Amino acid sequence: MRLISIRNYFSSWKVLPDGLVPIGDFSFSFSFSFLSDKSNKADRLYFIQKALSSSCKQSQEVLQRLRDLKRSYVLFGDRRWSPAFLGLLVGLLVMSSTSVRADVASAIKTLESGDVSGSVKEFQAAFEAGDPDGAFYIGRLFEMGLGTDKDMRRAAQLYAAAASKQSAKAQNRLGLMHLNGEFVLQDYQRAAELICASADAGDANGQFNCGLLYQDGKGVSRDLSKAVSYWDRAAEQNNVAAMNFLGQAYLSGKGVKQDPAKAVTYFSKTAAAGNPMGLYELAKAYQTGAGLPKDLVLAHAYANLAAIRSMEGAADLRNNLEKQLKADELVKAQEFARTWKAVPLDGNG
Questions:
Q1: Among the four 60, 84, 282, 287, which has the fewest Cβ within 10 Å?
Q2: pLDDT band at 100; cut points 50, 70, 90
Q3: Pfam families given for it (predicted)?
Q4: Do 174-237 and 239-349 show the same overall fold?
């Protein structure tokens, strides 16, 4: 019998036409993996689910108590559960006095401290207290394989649970899964509904991705001006990808009036944060003088910085620029790159 793995916390799910949605409230998606083939298995599962449902807020502590008791009591076998044991189980629900913190922020801190199982309890409590992001973060644990085996299907189920309660983070992630057909049906319209709902709720990643959908015309009519509008909103939250795409838009004049100087403004911000594309685009701007004074020394320096970050084309640009520099200029360029320090952007990078 397995009672510990977080995999067993979430197993009762149902597929509906609009995505993966849990049966009933999230609390009732708990189930135990009783591994007996005896005929009374269903009866035992029914009783424990009834006990849990009587006080779902305390279900996590009950699970811990059951772990403590598993060596002292026979939880499955040839006999049915005794009334005495069922009474004890219900008693555990009533007598539980320790509550799990229902706060996603504290759960994230618990996770960062290395306590995965503790964070799961807190994320679960947060979800039950009304914060749908709790289920989203448990889904991320399944997606990344932290504290459990990697399981994208369960991750999708949890994202769906969170998205159904308006978690913007989950809407964006589940939307991307529909966009790419990863463990859910590929459905551009559904992807756009979810991702752009996330964007409209203020999620920076959702805003960036919704802009991409309008740029590519997937699930929505192609509209470059709308794409730029969503990227603008994401850039206000310091989303690096959105800043780079805005830079490209102003450089090319697609969706906006062409403005190389404004493009450089965005590339300069992402370059300062150490982003490879920003560094590379800034190097090209210094090479050509598009949007700022031409400077081959700085062009070489930024191309050098982009190259060590594996930006495609950056090493070739650096090598070509080297041929155009004098010996003392090359020394200056390399010294600039050697002493340069990235400054992370605040917000959703």
A1: 84
A2: low
A3: Sel1
A4: yes
What SS3 class is residue 7?
A: helix
Residue with tokens 């060596």: 71
pLDDT bin (cut points 50, 70, 90) of residue 274 is very high
The pair of three-digit structure tokens given for residue 209, joined into one six-digit string: 């991705």
CATH architecture assignment, domain 239-349? Alpha Horseshoe (1.25)
How many angstroms separate the CA atoms of 178 and 114, rounded?
31
Q: What's the rounded Cα separation, in Å, for the pair 115 and 253? A: 49
Q: 3-state DSSP call for residue 33?
A: strand
186-207 tens-digit pLDDT: 999 999 999 999 999 999 999 9
The answer to whether the Cα torsion of 347, 249, 193, 185 is positive or negative is negative
Q: Where are the domains of the chain?
A: 174-237, 239-349
CATH architecture of structural domain 174-237: Alpha Horseshoe (1.25)
More confident residue, 42 or 106: 106
> Which pTM was predicted?
0.72
Residue at token pair 């070489």: 300
